[in-house]
Amino acid sequence: MLNTNTDDSTTRAGFMPFTLYHNPRCSKSRQALQLLQEQGIEPQLRKYLDEPLNLDELKQLLSQLDMTPRQLMRTGEEIYRELDLANTELDDAQLLDALLQHPRLIERPILSNGKQALVGRPPEQVLQLLK
Asked: Which pLDDT score is estimated for 10?
């Protein structure tokens, strides 16, 4: 039977719904959302500052991104310096804990299709996942 699902978040055949890990106060995140909407995509929004990721979700996202916890960190945040997260002796478990305790450290925006994810820096980068 033909799939007649009209959910805008699934407009690309063969992909799970798109999820945008989003901070509405971030201009880059808002720009990424606008670019997606201009392409006819209405992603599910995960406002990760209001609804923080749990450990399993964070590990899954890192796997989709093919990144380490350190690579996902916003190094310009004050909490990054306060916690001395540039310290190369910190292991991934410690960095994951910092990301979980301080979700503001997570780079944004991130677009996921359930299998792959991309950081939208610059915001146009999210369009690569639509191809």
From this structure: 44
